[in-house]
Structures are given as C-alpha cells and as structure tokens.
Amino acid sequence: MGLLAPAASLCHFEVIGDLPSDQIFQFVSERLHNERFRSIEKSIDEYSCGWVEMDDHDAAEFAEERQLLRERTLCFALREDRRKIPAALLKREITRISAEYLEAHPTFNRVPKSEREAIRDLASSQLFSRTLPVPAVSDIVWKIDSGLLRFTSLSQNRIDSFQGLFHQSFPELRLRLLTPLARANAVANAEQKEQLAELNQANSDTALEEIEANSWMGEELLQWLLYRSLNSDSGYAVCTPGPLLMNQPFNAWLDNRLLLVGSGTEGEQKISVAGPQDRFSEVCAALRSGKRIAEATLHLSLGEEQSWKLTLKGERFSFGGFRTPMIKPDKDPVDDPKLEVEAAFYSKMVSIEEGEQLFASLIKTFFERRLNSGWDTEAAKIIAWFKEQA
C-alpha cells in the first residue's frame, strides 16, 4: 500500500552520508533515472525492478522537481514487476509439450533426460508470453536534513530489493535499519545512553545482529504497555520534539490483536489473540506459560477525532497497517490535480509525523522507567500481576 492509503506499513531507515549541498534535484534524479523501472509487459522476462515516480507508477523520468523534491524531502517509489506461473499450470504445459515430443519421436517411450530441461524452458517461456506481470509498488519518503527514510513495506524480500537497489544507485551513501536500540538512544540523555550501551547484547554494530540480540526491548515494552493498558488510565504526555506541543496529553493502549511466541518441543509456537479484549485472559495465560508478546495493535489518541492505530512489531519497532487521522484537503473543480495530490501528501505527512512523535514519546517514557533504579521492583510487580490472573 502507498503512503496516501488509509493504512500504510512503515519501515524506518537512517541514511548515513551527505548529498551534495547544491543541485540535489539534478543529482538524485540522475541516479534514479539510471536505475529506473523498465517494463517487461511486452517481453517474456520474469522480473523487473526499478525506481518510479511516487505519484505516477508508470513514469520514471523524474523530470519535474516538484514531483521528486518537496520541502527538503525526496519522494519516489520502488516498483517490482514479476510474472508468476502456478505450478499446476506449468506441469500441465510440460505434459502437453512432452506428449507432442513423444508423438514426433515414436521410437521413444519417454522423453530423454537431455530434452527435459529444454521442454521445461519452452513451457515456461510460452506461459510467460501469455501472462501479464504483477506489479508491486512501495513509496519512499527521504528527509534530506535528518537522514530519516520511510519505506512503505515490511516484506523482507521487498526490503532486500530496496536496499540492494538503493546501494546500487547511491554507492557513496549507507542505508541502515532504524533499530529499537537506535530509537531508544535518539530519545535518551547522556547517562541513559551509557546505560543502554551496557545493556546492548550485540557483539557488532550491524543492524540485524543488533535487532536479534536486543529482542528484549520490544518484548519488555509490549508487556509493560499491556500491563499499563489494564491497570492505568493509559495516559502519557508528549515529551519528544515534533509537530505536536510538548507536554500535550495523549493516551496509548493495546487492544484488538496480539501475537505471542514461545519455544516448544517442535520449534517456535505462535498464538494469535484477536478481537476486542476485556481482561486479556488468554494473553495472561500465555505469558504465564513463558510466551512473549511479539506484536500487538497499538492505539494512540489525542481525542475522539485524532487517533492513530498500528500493528507494532516488537522486534524492529516497525509499523504495520499504520492508520492516521488523515485530513483530506478541500477539492475545487478548477484545482490542478497535481496540486491536490501534493496537498494530500503534505497533510498525510503531518499526520504520520504526529503519530511518530507520540510513539517516540511512548518509547522515551518507557526507557526512563526501564533505566531507573526502581525498574526491578516494577518488573517484578508486573510479572506477579500476570501470574495472579486466572
């Protein structure tokens, strides 16, 4: 789903390195054009991947500055087209061509091994020629000054494709996943950063190892949020910079769906609890048995008309199905459609940044508690409460 969709997943990256101080548009548009998407619709190619314009997924010229560069923000998209042939259909086509081969060679009882691969390739090419490629597009919003880059997909295959093409297009820059540890450090003071460094269980600074080694961050955050959802008014205050006012009160709670994971005799076990919850009895029972919360539906609210909803992925702090209180600009019949799209983009970005600010404030509040000397007592109280729920 694209950025302007009612709900769009967000994966956050940090771009390390600097773009040229001047002529940014010319520099970036040339790089994107060099690796632009090329259609395979009139070919029999199986796959194509490249950059397209965010507002027109069939355009890859990047000729208009306002389509690519909007207030120090670069906006473009990754498009992947792939032809897929169902296995049953391919098998049937191979059988048909094999039968024709045996009919033409009556001395053979079966297709020789040396011919089978050629028949398979012929079957694939014939089916590809009659099959339209399926497109998949993910939007990219790259803030030049902060280096924050948002990518609208959580699919690991899509992320891998994006990272590979980005490094190919911008070899002088480095793209790094924004990990939970990095998010915590971004809202921590000097003393808390030292504490986080001591708690960091990774042996290197690679993003994937940092994520895997510090999975406790998401697990403890989600368990703390669940406890707070059941035992408090779920009230917080904005305490990080952004479009919202500092100290503005807001509410945050878990509801609707939680995914729990744990080890079993046959490998990792997963339990999904869905639907509006009262006391989360199933979740409490799973936690008592040693399972951990891997992801949950998180609600953020400034009031009845301003609410955000997302599936928080605990391992990476990524946002699944991030739904914002989108404010649609007023439409005028004489308005330029391109200007309307731009207005919708700016309105959506404000909503996204407000939601991200609320989440950052939530993280800051949690880690202030987590790094406090009284955390062991609070953690023991939370664990004891879950054990007491029958």
Helix/strand/pairing category: alpha+beta
Name the beta content range.
15-25%
Largest sheet, described in full?
12 strands, antiparallel
Share in helix: 40-55%
The domain count comes to 3
For the terminal residues, how far apart are their CA atoms?
A: 41 Å
Rg of Cα set = 25 Å
Give the total of beta strands.
12
In N-to-C order, the SSE pattern is EHEHEHHEEHEHHHHEEEHEEEHH
Oligomer: single chain
Main traits of this protein?
alpha+beta, TATA-Binding Protein, 12-stranded antiparallel β-sheet, 3 domains, 12 helices, single chain, globular, 390 residues
Written account of the structure:
The chain has helices at residues 24-34, 65-68, 87-104, 113-129, 156-169, 180-186, 190-199, 207-213, 216-231, 281-288, 337-370, 375-388, and strands at 7-16, 47-52, 73-82, 134-143, 148-151, 174-177, 235-237, 249-264, 267-274, 292-303, 306-313, 318-323. It is α+β, with helices and mostly antiparallel strands. It has three domains: 7-83 and 132-175, 2-Layer Sandwich (TATA-Binding Protein), CATH 3.30.310; 96-129; 216-388, no CATH class. Strands 1, 2, 3, 4, 5, 6, 7, 8, 9, 10, 11 and 12 form a twelve-stranded antiparallel beta sheet that branches. A hairpin with a 4-residue loop joins strand 11 (306-313) and strand 12. The longest helix has 34 residues, at 337-370.
